Amino acid sequence: MKKDIHPKYYLDSKVKCACGQVFTIASTKEYMEVETCSQCHPLYTGKEKKLDHVGRVEQFRKRMAKKKK
Predict the structure, then answer these.
(1) Phi-psi category of residue 65: left, alpha or beta, with phi > 0 → left and psi -120 to 50 → alpha
(2) Against a cut of 0.90, is the pTM above it?
């Protein structure tokens, strides 16, 4: 590596999640705040929300039909 061109690399960077979880990682930033982590993300917790996509598509089609009239 060339000297004096790379950012400082922290081996014990602190990461704080909005849910309160705090953990350490290696990063070029010393401290980070995130909105979701593996403790609170629905994909990892199994509490995934299903959205009604069909209803949204139908609403969109109705709006488009009104515009054409």
Answers:
(1) alpha
(2) no
Q: What is the pLDDT of residues 31-42, one digit of tens each?
A: 999 998 888 887
What is the distance between the alpha carbons of residues 4 and 64, in angstroms, rounded to a whole number?
58
CA dihedral 14, 19, 21, 23 (to 10 degrees): -30
Q: What token pair was written down for 36?
A: 């979701």
Q: Both tokens of residue 66?
A: 């009104």
Question: CB–CB of 5/26 below 8 Å?
Answer: no
In 3D space, the residue among 2, 28, 30, 3 whose CA is nearest the CA of residue 16 turns out to be 30
Please, what are the domains in the chain? 10-68 (4.10.80.400)
- Position 48, amino acid: E
- Which residue, chain included where needed, has tokens 């690399």? 9
